[in-house]
Amino acid sequence: MALKTQHKRPDIIIENGIQYTSKVMLDLNDLKKVYPTPNGDYVVLENLNLQIMKEEFVTIIGHSGCGKTTMLSMIAGLNPISGGSISVLSNPIKGPGPDRGVIFQSPSLMPWLTTLENVMLGVRQVFPHAKKKEREDICKYYLSKVGLDGSFHKKASELSQGMQQRVGIARAFAIKPKVLLLDEPFGMLDSLTRGELQDVLIEIWNKEKITAVMITHDVDEAIFLADRVVMMTSGPSAKIGDILDIDFQRPRSRKSIIEHDDYYKYRKHLIDFLEH
Ligand SMILES: Nc1ncnc2c1ncn2[C@@H]1O[C@H](COP(=O)(O)OP(=O)(O)OP(=O)(O)O)[C@@H](O)[C@H]1O
Ligand SMILES: [Mg+2]
Asked: What PROSITE patterns does its record include (predicted)?
């Protein structure tokens, strides 16, 4: 039997005297969530097990109301767990933290602050000892990446929905998280902006070597972005129903993926799951 011991650094594992670094970034173990309701407890998630590897891009699909946002908000530390555990690099999470950046469907910016000030809010908290100029440079870098270099000093209330969503993305990247959690971030955008922001997301994810977990309702988006697509069963007591590996090489182009034979197999697999 393999002898497994935990090193002082929890992401280092020693097995039979050989030391290696665990590749698991996120570990959801027998996760459970119960919401109290006037008609009694409602078990949204139960026995949900999922491991997500370092630098992996995972997309999550499942029917509306199955518990995707509930799961993501628990990983973010914004929603208490009813049972089981969630660990980041083997450390059980105790609440929100700068190791996890979150991008919601609507970015909820401070409307009276400028684009730059909105991104600075988080950066100031995470890098309190950096000089103001250094912090500003980080914010400006990510704002430029999402195509907002001409809008640093515009008030958030003056931005279009697509521009606000870009600020939300820049804000999450600027705190340099290990894990990026995205809840239908492009759901409300037109298809052109959506494609553009998917490309920005993949570029920064690839460059910063972060781990991404993204909920989407769009099967094509799920395939285009992911290393693995995770399918959740319908609630109550939702869990992981199936996982599909997407073996397309990176960098990917939409055209080459659509022309690939496997694309239709993947698509069929996901649609069959959703229709049953
Ligand atoms: N605070 C809450 N109190 C009680 N029930 C809740 C609460 N939040 C969510 N729910 C219920 O839990 C279930 C899962 O909700 P959740 O928002 O996680 O689903 P979802 O998969 O993200 O759905 P969608 O795809 O529509 O965004 C739903 O039945 C919802 O009504
Ligand atoms: Mg949701």
From this structure: ABC_TRANSPORTER_1, ABC_TRANSPORTER_2
